[in-house]
Write a structure and sequence with these properties.
single chain; 589 residues; alpha+beta; Phosphoenolpyruvate Carboxykinase, domain 1; Phosphoenolpyruvate Carboxykinase, domain 3; Phosphoenolpyruvate Carboxykinase, domain 2; 8-stranded mixed β-sheet; 17 helices; 29% helix; globular; binds guanosine-5'-triphosphate; binds sulfopyruvate; binds manganese (II) ion
């Protein structure tokens, strides 16, 4: 391994080590040999468990503290010098105060442990999109997870030695005080400090912290976008290729849409779906005036429960080797893993996510935590697209916003323009899920699925979207979907998963000007007959239900949007105009 010769990097590492006082500092070179050695340490201490080498080669099992199983939004802060630069939707504290508070917590936090220095890249090293970082951590789980989720090691050290900018990431599992958990971003210093957590979103600092919070801040400054979006490739029977980005809040279907398996009818016709990304997109305007996207990650940190051979066979196959499972149930008979809805054969001799003996056949308790996850290399995915590996960006035809709403939101509609689409994104709502600490199932506003992830003032973020639209001669068309509408029996009306392709195909036809639509106050909706329902047990009545826009319900929605907007003292005119038009349209229903 080449030494790090960049003195800015070395001085910073030295300073952090003086504060956290580890026994030793070890640089990660990204080699299999080194990662194997480190893994052995975690197996020896029992921090991680090796799973059945025949059935799940290279796979590991990990459990977090039961109070530390999801992102903690209340303890996630954006510390800009001016409060208004972070607000009004982010938690904020003055950087000087926050650094002082954190320095006390980090003081000696790594005593008796090793500090690992992980040089990593978000994006393919050397491409225009790539951003580099170094994460210092005392957690082997973080080292092994970062080695899956990002590109780590020597090529990044070479970039740092050549003087590349980098994000300074510091994490300590510490656990000195469970109540002193903090995930703190200092965008103006390109710095992230996280302490007292071991849960992915709080500690794999390349992911939400760098690629979204710091990324969105840098994107605004440098003229690009960092978004909570999947990227999907659709190849039509005639060979035409299309790319779609989708922004849905946490645990609302991005991974599943990104790895979609076409229904047999469409497979036979020759439709192919490939995966470019499942959670984060970085987007730039190309010379041709179109919007190009890359997935800056190198793996998938996906929700385990609900993943099965029918709902998402590609995700399941992706997790069959070199994967880390966190907070799922374990089968003690054959040392494999299990989670709700994996199959109809839960272990009798099992252990639940808390580590308690668990009989899946008789127990009424869940075996896996609802936010239990797999951390799997992207290269394992049977549908991974070639474009993922080049990291040069794919041209986006459509952006899809979506939420989890039992009522109100119809199955699909198209916005009337880029600006109108920005309004649609800004007014997005969704029921909360287990991906974040707090109550589940509460409707909240989550613009562009970025409420937990935007690293700066949300009204400036809306303006940035409007400004990006002005830079494109051929912007993506913007749509809104809701796979989660329920009937009188509270059951989902739309089958979802692979069948979502039927909705995507209407969108692509719209992009090409080849499909009909009706104008509604929300935007353009398909007529029931415009969605291909071949082989589906769904009639025109069901589709009408899925597409219905109810006046009273939408009068309430409008009140909700008004209330949400009231916290912003400067909304782009384009958004205000689109909102006024919606109000008039709903009144005229
Ligand atoms: P994050 O990783 O938290 O950002 O989540 P995500 O947006 O990638 O969500 P994911 O695809 O993991 O899905 C979350 C949950 O929603 C899982 O339990 C899925 O089974 C379920 N789900 C996904 N797509 C659909 C769908 O089309 N219909 C229904 N009914 N459920 C879905
Ligand atoms: C999400 O919550 O949106 C995730 C998981 O993708 S985490 O990395 O924990 O944020
Ligand atoms: Mn996510």
């Amino acid at each position: 391994m080449t030494m790090v010769t960049n003195e800015t990097v070395n001085n910073w590492v030295r300073e952090m080590a003086e504060m956290t006082k580890p026994d030793e500092v070890v640089w990660i070179d990204g080699s299999d040999e080194q990662l194997e050695e480190i893994k052995k340490v975690a197996l020896k201490t029992g921090e991680m468990i090796a799973l059945n080498e025949e059935k799940l080669p290279g796979c590991l099992y990990y459990r977090t503290n039961p109070k530390d199983v999801a992102r903690d939004e209340k303890r996630t802060l954006i510390c800009t010098r001016k409060e208004e630069d972070a607000g009004p939707t982010n938690h904020w504290m003055a950087p000087v105060e926050m650094y002082a508070k954190l320095r006390k917590l980090f003081d000696g936090s790594m005593k008796g442990r090793v500090m690992y220095a992980i040089p990593f890249s978000m994006g393919v090293v050397g491409t225009d999109f790539a951003k580099y970082g170094v994460e210092l951590t005392d957690s082997i789980y973080v080292v092994l997870s970062m080695a899956i989720m990002t590109r780590v090691g020597q090529p990044i050290i070479d970039k740092l030695n050549a003087g590349a900018d980098f994000t300074k990431c510091l994490h300590s599992k510490a656990q000195v005080n469970e109540k002193e958990k903090y995930i703190v971003h200092f965008p103006e210093d390109n710095t992230i400090w996280s302490i007292n957590s071991a849960y992915g979103g709080n500690v794999l600092l390349g992911k939400k912290c760098l690629a979204l919070r710091i990324g969105s801040f840098l994107g605004r400054k440098e003229g690009w976008m960092a978004e909570h979006m999947l990227i999907l490739k659709i190849e039509a029977p005639n060979g035409e290729k299309h790319y779609v980005c989708g922004a849905f809040p946490s645990a609302c279907g991005k991974t599943n849409l990104a790895m979609l398996t076409p229904p047999d009818y469409f497979k036979k016709m020759g439709y192919k779906i490939q995966t470019v990304g499942d959670d984060i997109s970085w987007l730039r305007v190309g010379d041709d005036g179109r919007l190009y996207a890359v997935n800056p990650e190198n793996g998938f940190f996906g929700v385990a429960p609900g993943t099965n051979e029918k709902s998402n066979p590609n995700a399941l196959k992706t997790t069959r080797k070199n994967t880390i499972f966190t907070n799922v149930a374990r089968n003690l008979d054959d040392n494999t893993v299990w989670w709700e809805k994996l199959d109809k054969n839960p272990p009798e001799n099992g252990e639940d996510w808390l580590g308690n003996p668990w009989n899946g056949k008789t127990s009424t308790e869940k075996g896996a935590h609802p936010n239990s996850r797999f951390t799997a290399p992207a290269e394992n995915c049977p549908t991974i697209a070639d474009e993922f590996f080049t990291g040069e960006g794919v041209p986006i035809d459509a952006i899809v916003f979506g939420g989890r709403r039992a009522k109100a939101e119809p199955l699909v509609y198209q916005s009337k323009s880029w600006d109108h689409g920005v309004f649609v994104g800004s007014a997005m709502t969704s029921e909360t899920t287990a991906a974040a600490k707090g109550q589940v199932g509460v409707v909240r506003h989550d613009p562009m699925a970025m409420i937990p992830f935007c690293g700066y003032n949300m009204s400036d973020y809306f303006q940035h979207w409007i400004d990006m639209g002005k830079k494109m001669s051929d912007p993506p068309k913007i749509f809104h979907v809701n796979w989660f509408r329920t009937d009188e029996k509270d059951e989902f009306i739309w089958p979802g998963f692979g069948d979502n392709l039927r909705v995507l195909l209407w969108m692509l036809a719209r992009c090409k000007g080849e499909a009909d639509a009706v104008e509604t106050p929300l935007g353009y909706e398909p007529r029931p007959e415009d969605i291909d329902t071949t082989d589906l047990d769904l009639d025109a009545e069901d589709l009408k239900k899925l597409l219905a826009i109810d006046k009273e319900t939408w009068q309430d929605e409008i009140k909700g949007i008004e209330e949400f907007y009231s916290q912003f003292d400067k909304l782009p005119d384009e958004i205000n105009e689109a909102f006024d038009a919606l109000k008039k349209g709903v009144e005229a229903l």
